[in-house]
Amino acid sequence: MLLPSRKRAKMYKVSETARKFKIDSRPVIRQPEDTVPHFLPNVPEGREAFQVAFLDTRHRLIVAPWIVSIGTLNASLVHPREVFREAIKHGAAAIIVSHNHPSGCPRPSADDIALTERLDKCGELLGISLLDHIITGEDSHLSLCEEGMGF
Predict the structure, then answer these.
(1) DSSP state, 60?
(2) What is the CA angle 136-142-144, rounded to 5?
(3) Which phi and psi (to 5°) does residue 100 adopt?
(4) Fewer beta carbons within 10 angstroms: which end of the chain, N or C?
(5) Residues with Cβ within 8 Å of residue 13, at least 6 apart in sequence
(6) Does the structural domain 24-147 have CATH classification 3.30.2060.10?
(7) Exposed e or buried b for every residue in 31-53, given b needs 16+ CB within 10 A?
(8) pLDDT tens digits, one per residue of 68-82
(9) Sequence ranges of the domains in the chain
């Protein structure tokens, strides 16, 4: 049974208003602690994994985590091409990268800092901001941004 046209129009207005003011339930990333829970569940035990979270212009998660590389006990091969190809596909305005140290110590190596600087430069060229590089250890994490390292 069709509703009279006046009632249909009123129902359409209500549904349009609800659609316009729909609240986005995606998490907003304001600090490293907001990101860490999205990365930790996906880390394989005993192997280093490099992951990326893609964010929109308001720093809401688009996709997290996206695994770029799963390496060995102490290394993971990462190239900016793989990181930014996916960022572009997802329309990301910013990214946060993360990897784990199976040793349990989240202190960055010289390679970690060099990779962060390289990703930052590539992101700058593409207009995709690198907001942070988070290294997770056994029961802790370290934010290179908070530590003032790398970029």
Answers:
(1) B
(2) 120
(3) -105, 155
(4) N
(5) none
(6) no
(7) ebeebbebbeeebeeeebbbbbb
(8) 988 777 777 899 999
(9) 24-147
